[in-house]
């Protein structure tokens, strides 16, 4: 079977005025963002027709020739199938210009959500704290802070009710004691002034976090009163809103067809739809299907797993430049990403967001 790229292009026109997009994710560990199996979450979406997506899936099967009943991203990520992977992502391949990936660096999401909760949304404090923290305090102390922040925010708590708050502010105090109280001097070199300024900003953020305990206590009290409808740390729900925002840009109505997930209860789907409506996103509905029954979702599953692996490798300093370059056109510039070096590789130079630019999702 031979793939014709024009088939995918023709499939981009919305049928009946509504654009239907297939979606899936990779890297979900629930709210365990600092101790899970993966450090990157990826949510992928494709706007191929069912027929075009089925043609692409069959082409992948014909090229790989594995006896597996259901193909996953790991099939394409094997070195012996690299040519198939490159074909899938390439400009002449079946999904170029027809697919999108929203990436989330999990540990940055923890810091971002903690700062938003305790200090209020809309600042760049989380970015500076995240980028300077490991260098300023050392990996071991910084990891302890991340773990405590994760425990503070997650709904599930197997210990004493007050333990997450106590643990978090204990780590904040430890960082404050270790934080150098330096000031910027006019005689300091420009590069040194930047470093000193960043450290001073981190010290200020930590001071303000330390004084925000009432907000943390109130949050944990709310969690303790009953099951929380929308877990603050689970990346799937805001990723879906971001995906809908991308495809509905310019006022296009969009309907998402998503792989079944336990997280996607009717109440949470209603939250996604309401959040999208308030943000001016043209999401008209979210339908759940089994991935194997919808080729569009299968292709999104491939792309999500591939993107997560490539982005994780880049994050950990073992990036594959040719594969990163092939992924770059698909990456959402509103991704939730804190590491500066890897982000510079994952997006094109003219698409790099500034530190002030934030994801539009709550």
UniProtKB/TrEMBL annotation:
Top-level taxon of origin: Bacteria
Residue ranges with Basic and acidic residues bias: 349-362
Region (Disordered): 342-362
Record protein name field: DUF3800 domain-containing protein
Organism: Streptomyces cellulosae
